[in-house]
Every structure is written in structure tokens, then in C-alpha cells.
Amino acid sequence: MTRTNQERKYSVRQLAGPVVTTPAGAVRGIRDDFGELYRAVPYAAAPTDARRFAPPAPHPGWSGVRDGTQPSSTAPQPARDFGRLDMTPYFGPGWVRGGEYLTVDVRTPAAGDGERPVMVFVHGGGFVTGSTSAALYDGSAFARDGIVLVTVNYRIGIPGFLDLPGAVPNRGLLDVLAALGWVRDTVAAFGGDPDNVTIFGQSAGATLVGALLATPQANGLFQRAIMQSGSGTGAFTPEQAHRVTVAAADALGVEPTAEAFSSITDERFMEILPALAGLDLRTGSATDPLAGLSPFGLVLPSQPADTLADGPARHVDLLIGTNTEEGHLYLVPQGDLESSTEADVLAIATRVYANPETGVAAHSAARPDATPGELRSAVLGDALFGAGTARMAQAHARISSGGTHVYSFGYRSTALDGRLGAAHTVELPFVFDLADKPWLHGETGLLGPDPAPASLATRIHAAWVSFARTGDPGWAAYDPQHPVTEILGS
After folding, report:
1. What pLDDT does 265 receive?
2. What is the CA radius of gyration of the chain?
3. Are the beta carbons of 299 and 204 closer than 8 angstroms?
4. For the chain, percent of residues with pLDDT exceeding 70
5. What pLDDT score does 11 carry?
6. What is the domain count for the chain?
7. Whole-Å CA distances, 40 to 68, 106, 128, 312
8. Among residues 49, 308, 377, 392, which is most buried (max CB within 10 A)?
9. In CATH, what number is assigned to the domain containing residue 355?
10. Is the residue at 100 inside a domain?
11. Looking at residue 112, what is its pLDDT?
12. Strand ranges for 213-289 from DSSP E
């Protein structure tokens, strides 16, 4: 078959290792004790220049055998600082420059050998950071247990989520949708069953999974979904998104259009991010769904929890839950848990509740001995994840022919003098069965200096694998009339 010049530029040298032939071309990976790993496999064309604001386009393919042994470049992103806490395993290497970052990594027990359950993971990072290269997303344990794991890079920040006239909205979400199409058409070559796909995500990734449950174009692309610390009510309204767009255009000195933004470099986009931090996005009808932590996210006229009937949710099993001290991640590493005042509690409540005094009073009644810092953490966790998770679980259970299973993760990390607790992200090492890794431990490691309970990692990872295989994680389904929540960790 004759290749075009555009296709030829993706040709790469041949390397030793297993080779899989996909519709776009052949790719060579790595074989190790856990099976095979194929890295940086494109699912869409490089989103460069004006294409940063266009829907994902099919990849043109390549000749020869592509090198799938090296990590992908990553979406443009700023560095993130979490004070004394080492979040490198979560955020990964940061911005690794290169236009072709709409890629997936595939971990498989063996390519072309059987029809194994497939799990597709969507990373978090506040819609502005993250990549498949993060150490926490090592899929070795999933491959060990017979799962084909696909991890997805997608557009983030301004290219991924800024709502621009002349550009298709929610481009990062469309990328994930395109990756699911790639899985349907390609995963069999890697030993996966395209009719047994579970999509799962954490934080922003979980919120994207929630949106896919309400997206008509996602029908038939996955059979099960897992939302870890996400929200079914985390989308901005068009009015809120417009405020961010105007602020970004003002900071750049250009018109707020896709045409004007297409000539701006990614480096310049990074430079203006501080000017967008802390925007007041409250309106007469909506509070800030991301509590001021990110100006970017989904932009929808209605929240996914209210529109599940429009998408595949009715026929999809759902596993969903949160951590018991989500908000600690945003306070403990910075030293703000102890220094918080009642005024700080009211300030965050004003950002996220229509009736802030009532919201604070409810948390105070539930935690009569809580310090201001603990109340501030509770308000953050509820606004970002808790309330939206509850809404999504209830909505799914009401309409779904599949099961709804709810969990609460309570294991307390001993990081930062034992104060980090069951914070946002702490469940990830248990899901990926990596809780014994040295780089997660120490005083500033995510899990702290104490050994993590191996039995809990075994239990949680096994529950996720079981859910992907059968739709049953090992505990009773949730019913709004008889709600069942499984406690994972104390």
C-alpha cells in the first residue's frame, strides 16, 4: 500500500520486542514478567496549531514498525506544587514537549491471545495536568490478573477545555471519546475484548467518565464505569465558562475566538494561567463546581447527573465512591489545616454553597468537635466530590438496568506527621496494587512512613478487577431506598 508523505513522517526504526499490527500500522513493545507493554500508541492525529481547538481527527498511520517502548510526550501543562507532599507519582513528569500526545499506553498479559476484559483509565489533575506517564498508573498488577489496561492522554487546560467561539467545546472529553473508539476498533489486537470494556477515572478523569455516561455518542463503547472521587455535578455553565474565556483573552490581548487563540503558543498559554486563578465564577443560578481550584473543566448546559438518560448510563454498571477526607490534600501539605479560621471556612462555603451559613452549620452539626481546618476540608470535599458523587449514584440507581455499587475509602495515610489522612488521591495506590512501592513512602510520600496494609491493597484491587469482569465488586448494589455503601479501610 502506498503511504503519503504525511504518513511517512511517523515512520520509526525497528526495535527488538513483540510487535502488534493495528489498523494504523505496526507497533513494537516490551515484554516483561507481567506480559507486554506498548507505549505512546496514537489514537488520533497530533493536535498542533489550529488543530488544538478542533475535534480529534483520525491518525494518518505510519509505515514500518513504530517504537512503542518509550513514554509519550504529554499535553502542555504547568508544574504543580503541593508543598511538602511529593505528588510526582501522581502528576508524572509534567510537560514533555512534542505535538503527538493523543496517545494511549497498553498493558496486556499477551497481545492477540484471548479476549480479556479491558479497563480504560482516564487520569486526573484538575483538567490542567497529568498524563499516562505517572508512576501511579503502572498497569502491571492489572495485566498480572488478566486485564488489558489502556491509559489515555487527552487535551487539558486551554486547548482541552476553554470554551471558545468557533471551536468545538469540551475537546478533552472528545479526545477520551475518540480513545474509546480506538479501543473498540483496535484492542482485540492486544488481546482485549471490545465487548467487555470498563472505563474508569479519578478526580477530573472520573468527572469525564460521568459526562460520558450522559453522552449519546458513547453508547456501546463501554459496559461498565468506575468513578473515583469525581462528580456528576462538576460542570461549568456556559455563563461561567464565558467569564474564563474573557479573562483569558484579556490576559493574552486577543479576541476571544478560536481563530485568535490558534496563533498563540502553548508556552504563552502557560504564562497566563496565574491570571485565571481564583476567578469568581458564582452566578445568579450556579456556584463554582470546582471551588476555585481550576478555571477549566466541562462546559455543559445541564449536569451529567441530571441527563443520564441521554447516554449509555441506563445499560452500564457503575462503581462510584469518594475518600473520607478528600479536602485534606488541599490544606495539609500547605500547612493550612491548622491555620484555618472560621472566616476561611465561611469563605470557601460562600464560593460553593448557595446558602453558605446553612452549609457550614450542617457540617458543624455532623462534626461537633471539628476544628476550623477540619470543617474547611469537609466543605471542600463535599463541594468537589461528595455531593456530586451522591447525586450521580442516586440518579444512576434510579434509571439503570445495571448495578450501582458505592464505596467509601477511609484508610488514613500517615504522611506529613500523620495528618494527610484519607485525602484525595490516596486510594490510587490500592486500586493499582502499588501500595508497597518505596516511592510512595517516607514522611513526604503519598502514603507516609508506615507500611500500607497489603490486605487492603489486595482487597481493593481485586474488587476493581472483579467489577471489570462481571459487574460485581463483591458487595451489595446501592438502592436509593436502601442505600448500601461499602467501607474500604477504617
Report:
1. 97
2. 22
3. no
4. 97
5. 39
6. 1
7. 6, 9, 20, 28
8. 392
9. 3.40.50.1820
10. yes
11. 80
12. 224-228
pLDDT number for residue 6: 36
Is 455 a known active-site residue?
no
Kindly report whether the global pTM for this prediction surpasses the value 0.70: yes
CA atoms within 13 A on the CB side of 467: 31
Confirm whether 203 is a catalytic residue.
Answer: yes
Q: Is residue 95 part of a domain?
A: yes
User: Looking at residues 108-124, what average pLDDT do you find?
Assistant: 93
Q: In this structure, are residues 235 and 304 in contact, taking their beta carbons and an 8 Å threshold?
A: yes
- Within a domain: residue 228? yes
- Tell me if residue 427 is catalytic: no
Q: Which of 73, 131, 133, 203 is catalytic?
A: 203
Q: Which residues of 211-230 are buried (b: 16+ CB within 10 A; e: fewer)?
A: bbbbbeebeebbbbbbbbbb
Asked if residue 380 is part of any domain, the answer here is yes
| From 123, 363, 424, 441, active-site residue | 424
Q: Which domain holds residue 367?
A: 36-53+69-238+290-488
Sheet strands (E) in 229-312:
none
Is residue 225 within 8 A of residue 200, CB to CB? The reply is: yes
338-376 per-position pLDDT tens digit = 999 999 999 999 999 999 999 999 999 999 999 999 999
Q: What is the pLDDT of residue 481?
A: 87
If you average pLDDT over every residue of the chain, what do you get? 95
Residues in the chain: 490
